[in-house]
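Subject: Sanity check before I submit

Could someone independently write out the structure tokens for this chain? I want to compare against mine line by line before I put it in a report. The sequence has 149 residues.
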Amino acid sequence: MAQLYFEDAEIGTTCKAGPCLVSKEEIIQFAKQYDPVPRHIDEAAAALSIFGGITASGAHTFAVFISLTPKLQPRFHVLTAMGFDELRLPNPIRPGDELNLETIVLEKRESKSNSERGIVRNQIRLRNQRDEIVLQCISNILVARRPGP
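---
Independent answer below. Compare away.
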């Protein structure tokens, strides 16, 4: 598994992960535990919603994104996530969707407080098999610098 350090981050560097298949059972199970709204757990209620059927909750969508990040290739040596900006959920996840994650480096800067790390901002896009974006945001991650000799 390729490991990228702060020095390797270049504007436009792309990392990818997936696919991740999301089942109706998974959507309902997640919603029952974390977001028990009828449109996520009851097919009759979901049919009457603006989505016209069962869809994953926003929390589930974000959880799928987070679950794919350790599988990104190539992968940055991430020390921690610092936050997410401009989070959007333009399309719902539906049962049977196959999701793929793509990150693109937008910018990077050296840490002012610690010379052994830097901050990388990435454009995040989680897409379904129809190439529709189901989640997009800007991530801010703290990335290790390459160890010295």
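---
OP: Matches mine. For the report I'm noting this point. The two ends are 22 Å apart (CA to CA).
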